[in-house]
Structures are given as structure tokens and as C-alpha cells.
Amino acid sequence: MEAGLSNWQKVCFVPTKADTMVSLFRRWLKKYADDKVDWGTNIYGTLTPIPPREQLMDRYWTHVVNCSSCTEAYKRLNALQIFLQVMSIALVAIMAAAKHMAISSVARYTLAVAAILCFVGSKWLSHFIYKNFHFQDYNHSFK
């Protein structure tokens, strides 16, 4: 305190790389706040309510929109999800239309299995996209 705010480097010894951020913060504080901090003594009213976890940990608006790689991956995975849904519906439609035609039961079962796999794949992909590009809850106590 006797040295003053502008002479903090003469009083404090910060020799390691771990102290670099402290030095940079003090330099920033001097440049933009003239070494003065308003610690909130003039705050009136109440704080804003805490937003829900999904809004706090939203990846889409905080990262994916601004990252070209993630945006491209997001678009391609969504296109794949839609393709799988369309294929699932198309295979069921083919199976229904072919019911009256002469196709073997093996071909009918193959179409049914393919339709189910497309549907399950689209549901799994939907969960994957949401978890990786929108929101994944994180609890430090479980990691």
C-alpha cells in the first residue's frame, strides 16, 4: 500500500510464467481503468435471475455458429439425419407397395430391417447432434 498502485511491480516479485496473467491484468487495469476498480459499491437493485443450464452451457450460439468447421459438420450431420429419415419412410412405402406384388419374404424382411436401421440411426444421430453441438450437461463431481 505504501508503494502505491502504480508501483506494484517494485513491491511484488512475479518471476514465473504462471504470474504472466497477473502482470498482464495489472497492465490492462492501469491502461483501461487507471488502476481504479469500482468493486460494486454503487450497485442498487437486485441481480438478474440465473438462466437455465441449457442456456448457460449452450454450444451452438457460443461456438458452432462462429466456427466454420463445426458449422460445416453440423450442416452435414443434419443432412445425413434427414436422409436417414427419408430413406426409412421410403423403404416402408416400398414395402407397403410391394405387398401386393410378388416379392420374396426375404426381400420384405430385408426392407423392414433396413427401414428400422435407418430410423434408429436417425434417432441416434439426432441425440448425437444435440449432445455435441447444442448442450451437454457437465457435473464436476462425476468426472
Explain what the structure shows.
α4 packs antiparallel against α5 (105-133). The chain contains five helices and no strands. The chain has helices at residues 8-11, 20-33, 53-56, 68-97, 105-133. The chain has 143 residues and is an all-alpha fold. It starts with 7 loop residues before the first helix and ends in a 10-residue tail after the last helix. The protein folds into two domains: 5-45, no CATH class; 54-134.
Radius of gyration: 29 Å
Question: Helical content, roughly?
Answer: 55-70%
Number of strands: 0
Indicate the mean pLDDT: 83
Biggest sheet character: none
GO molecular function: oxidoreductase activity
Protein name: Pheophorbide a oxygenase
Subcellular location: Membrane
Keywords: Membrane, Oxidoreductase, Transmembrane, Transmembrane helix
List key phrases describing it.
5 helices, 2 domains, Pheophorbide a oxygenase, 57% helix, transmembrane helix, 143 residues, transmembrane, single chain, Cholesterol_7-desaturase, mainly alpha
Question: What does the secondary structure layout of this molecule look like, with pairings?
Answer:
Blueprint: H1 8-11, H2 20-33, H3 53-56, H4 68-97, H5 105-133
InterPro entries: Cholesterol_7-desaturase
Main location: membrane
Transmembrane segments: 82-103, 109-130
